[in-house]
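Final report, results section. Input specification for complex C-07:
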Amino acid sequence: MTEQRDSVRTRTTLLRLGHRIARDKRVTTHLFLAARALGMEAAVYSGTRDRNIEETIMEVCKSWGGIFSLQYTDDYRKFVKEWRNQNRTVVHLTMYGIPIREQIEEVRNNHADKLIIVGGEKVPREIYDLADWNTSVSSQPHSEVSALSIFLHELFEGRELEKEFVGAKQKIVPQKRGKKVVQLKHEDSRDV
Amino acid sequence: MTEQRDSVRTRTTLLRLGHRIARDKRVTTHLFLAARALGMEAAVYSGTRDRNIEETIMEVCKSWGGIFSLQYTDDYRKFVKEWRNQNRTVVHLTMYGIPIREQIEEVRNNHADKLIIVGGEKVPREIYDLADWNTSVSSQPHSEVSALSIFLHELFEGRELEKEFVGAKQKIVPQKRGKKVVQLKHEDSRDV
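Structure output:
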């Protein structure tokens, strides 16, 4: 998939801070699904471990293809510091940061692997300091799913929407009206 | 706010189908917040009426400004049909639709007020037929919050991020690190 690599060049990992099972279940799921659909390689989350979400995401990957890993960390500080120690960069999405349109070119021109951090109700001050870029997608209260999606769309300049998902068992054929899903056979050969 | 009117020309209303209080509470809230933050005028929802969400959104509007209305409908079919009868257009965001990049120019060039519909688990076939455009933001399963956000970002070509929110009581001053919020006084004069 050389083409895919070229079209979405920067490798990105999402870090979701402070997941709470009851309250965040669906929003965190949406975050991970958006991350996968919009060209990220991986997601990591802190807070409370949630096996249901992990299963949901893995089911989606199995069915719809693509390579996307999801892991839990009980020490996000250590995770971020180790990330930085390997000369990779960190973007923190926050409504308090610098507007994306003033910053995205600089981020885009940096070809290091990127960790994209999204909160959590209260993001500790340390994260603002550890980030190379504190970026806002509007300075209004809205949604980390929304902020992440627009950020990725800007980072990849829309090419993330052309991404191919290798090994998918099914695929949508776009329609003007209605739904068309085709089942793909190639995946079966792995069991032979 | 002539400038605002010019920069985000098309008037858009969100229709969220089939809200369920327990399951959708936070995702629907995120949808409405994203709609408001990204330049929509109004949102309407069907399913179960949820006063908590209505209050949350109105609190945000009071505090952060802007004009955004939220209403409930117990008959979304009627609502959509009446919308269409007034020569306004309808976009249905669905993973089964035509890719946004193939369709957005046509949508953008249509200056009628737009209803943007997002599901709900199962969207009835009728919606696909009533829509002028069934548009997909990636043909992968992800998030209606994500799809709406990227759609609006494409529709308004990024200008939605420059929107001013009139009558705000507070405003963020973007920072490289940390948070800065200023309290605005003008709102008080309304009480005099």
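Residues 12-164 of chain A form a domain with the Alpha/beta knot fold (CATH 3.40.1280.10). The radius of gyration of chain A is 17 Å. This concludes the modelling results for the funded period.
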